[in-house]
Amino acid sequence: MRILLSQFRHPDDRIEREAIGSEGELIVQSVNDGAWCSVPKDARASIDGIIHSPPGTDVDGPPSEYPNVKALVRSGVGFDGLNLEAWGRNGTAVFNVPDYATSEVADHAIALMLSLTRGVFTYNDAIRADPATGWTQGIAPAVRRLRGAVFGIVGLGRIGLATAIRARAFGMRIAFHDPYLPSGMEIAVDTQRCASLHELIAISDVVSIHAPSNEETRGLIGAGALAHAKPGLVLVNTARGSLVDLDALHDALRTRRIMAAGLDVLPTEPADSTHPLINAWRRGEDWINGRLVLTPHAAFYSPSSVIDMRVKSVETVLRHIRSGDLSNCVNREFLVRRPV
């Protein structure tokens, strides 16, 4: 069994080798002079499974050049860079690893909320600038009491629910919008269900996004949605950058249509310093101070989560090749079964 570690980003493949044991051989696609080395075409035909590292990209070469690949695992949650239909026609089941960083992302969403609603960065920066005059309160614009406030969730899946549990511990009331959950879910988890995104944004003091990136959700949080925002809204995004229209967010913050935003993900990564919102934040313009927090797509990260992600990726490939298991398969509707 030969497994390709596609666009492999880690320092070494020790974890993958330990996970696969003596059962298979690893082929590592590495970097040379800042670019990924091409996978030799003669090697592609001998590969049985692929573990693909970076989000938002596809494997080197079309699926037809990998005729024997049974399983392709996106080593992470998002899989929007992979051509699910083409891989399915190739007889390749595509998987993600949805559960390796549930705790970390939920923790990070709450951390972004707290950094704004408790003024952590504002106070820290003020004291660092001048320990005497900076030793004051009331300078963080988004600070408020969380007990009794409404925490709105866009997408009540694994991570959304984990985040809701954490927010509830602060005494917040939970509401959500998720058109794909069955009726009665709001009863099971004791939350308020909103029929539309606009309804959710209109009643929420904090909105946290936990939806996938696809054609339906790109630009989901745009001018139309933000126009319905409850005054003082804090927006948190730890999902995908494409879900938030950055131009619309800039305008909503600039006009104080919403109060603040905490973003772990952006439409363009690394951050585009020429964008008006990012530029104003970097320059420390008065209107944005204390109202925007950025982190570098790090919500998923802890040493433990990275180990889990890598081990689970190998386990997923092996499980499918051994038994045909389709747990966490994301292209079932396109999958052409291979002849036995």
UniProtKB/TrEMBL annotation:
GO terms for biological process: regulation of transcription by RNA polymerase II. This is Hydroxyacid dehydrogenase. SUPFAM superfamilies: Formate/glycerate dehydrogenase catalytic domain-like, NAD(P)-binding Rossmann-fold domains. It comes from Microvirga ossetica. One of its GO terms (molecular function) is transcription corepressor activity. Belongs to the D-isomer specific 2-hydroxyacid dehydrogenase family. InterPro entries: CtBP, CTBP_dehydrogenase, D-isomer_2_OHA_DH_cat_dom, D-isomer_DH_CS, D-isomer_DH_NAD-bd, NAD(P)-bd_dom_sf. Keywords: Oxidoreductase. The lineage of its organism: Bacteria, Pseudomonadati, Pseudomonadota, Alphaproteobacteria, Hyphomicrobiales. Signal peptide: none annotated. Residues 67-331 form the D-isomer specific 2-hydroxyacid dehydrogenase catalytic domain. Residues 110-299 form the D-isomer specific 2-hydroxyacid dehydrogenase NAD-binding domain. It comes from the Bacteria.
